[in-house]
Amino acid sequence: MVPIGKLRGLERLNLCSTWFPIDMKRLELDAETEVSGAKDFERVVWLLKGSLTHLHLGNYIWDDLFVYIAEMCKELELVQVNSTQLTDLALCHLLKRSEHLKNLDVSGCT
């Protein structure tokens, strides 16, 4: 297992559950320490906020977590989302926040 600190500077992150099942559970929010209900994933996003340019996400993603990613990762150029849990509101938030976004693939969303 790679120490989480070594992720700093990573430009591409593929978390599509096509190859490996990802079972991220949405926890009850603790308003003092987390925003989206996925504290560990928030930490990864925080470390990558200045370097991440390509992001591929699977069906485990939800609105609060997606909005958190949009707020933190301003350098995103390509985002691919395959989730049935996202709403148009969360996608619009990404479009408003991502000034470098060139490609948004939501073909897996319904």
List the helices and strands and how they pair.
Blueprint: E1 12-15, H1 39-48, E2 54-57, H2 63-72, E3 78-81, H3 88-97, E4 103-105
Parallel strand pairs: 1-2, 2-3, 3-4
Describe this structure in words.
This protein is α/β, with parallel strands linked by helices and 110 residues long. 27% of the residues lie in helices and 14% in strands. The chain has helices at residues 39-48, 63-72, 88-97; strands at 12-15, 54-57, 78-81, 103-105. The longest helix is centred in the middle third of the chain and has 10 residues, at 39-48. The protein starts with 11 loop residues before the first strand and ends in a 5-residue tail after the last strand. The relative contact order is 0.18. The mean pLDDT is 79.
Largest sheet, described in full? 4 strands, parallel
Computed CA radius of gyration, to the nearest angstrom: 13 Å
Strand tally: 4
The residue ranges in which pLDDT falls below 50 over 5 or more consecutive positions are: none
Q: Given the C-alpha coordinates, what overall shape results?
A: globular
How much strand content do the residues show? Answer: 5-15%
Write the element-wise H/E pattern from the N-terminal end onward: EHEHEHE
* Number of helical elements: 3
